[in-house]
Design brief:
By secondary structure, the protein is mainly alpha-helical. It is built from 6 helices and 2 strands. A two-stranded parallel sheet has the order 1-2. The N and C termini lie far apart (72 Å).
């Protein structure tokens, strides 16, 4: 018996193909998981999934998103100033304590809710890391991961008020 390394294509999937499949699977999960929660109204013109909430609830979600953007800005200001306490304070402001209220959680798709909770947890972890003496580079890497969630959310979803 000989020990030989399999050639590419012999039972091993290339890394690029594997990553491609993961992206396809994530796309399908987001679209299938949210299908039941979609509004019966027509899809948005830009292809994003519409989430229809009352005007008050929509304003609440948008205010929460603005607060997270303020936290991103605060983390960046802390990074530039080499000020870990500012980074921690800015990140903590968008941590788990500010997560959506229970009534609103019942009205959004499960995938949206998971993404939002991951984002709040990411801010919380960033604050903990900065408080525990993490580095600026670690804070910036954590912020990049958080902002990936923001980009994904804004790519997939759109909030509308009832017509």
């Amino acid at each position: 018996m000989t020990n030989r390394t399999p050639e590419r294509g012999e039972g091993m999937m290339s890394r690029g193909v594997a990553i491609g499949w993961v992206i396809v699977e994530l796309f399908l999960v987001f679209n299938i998981a949210g299908a039941a929660a979609r509004s019966p109204a027509e899809p948005s013109a830009d292809g994003r999934q519409r989430i229809v909430l009352s005007r008050v609830q929509r304003d609440q979600v948008l205010a929460e998103m603005r607060r997270m953007l303020e936290s991103v800005n605060g983390v960046l200001r802390g990074y530039v100033a080499n000020d870990l306490p500012t980074i921690a304070s800015a990140a903590r402001a968008s941590g788990m304590a500010m997560a959506a209220d229970p009534e609103l959680k019942k009205k959004v798709p499960a995938a949206f809710l998971r993404l939002g909770m991951q984002t709040h947890k990411g801010f919380e972890d960033l604050a903990d890391q900065a408080t525990a003496g993490g580095t600026r580079e670690e804070a910036l890497a954590a912020l990049a991961a958080i902002s990936n969630n923001c980009v994904a959310c804004h790519t997939i979803y759109r909030f509308d008020a009832p017509r």
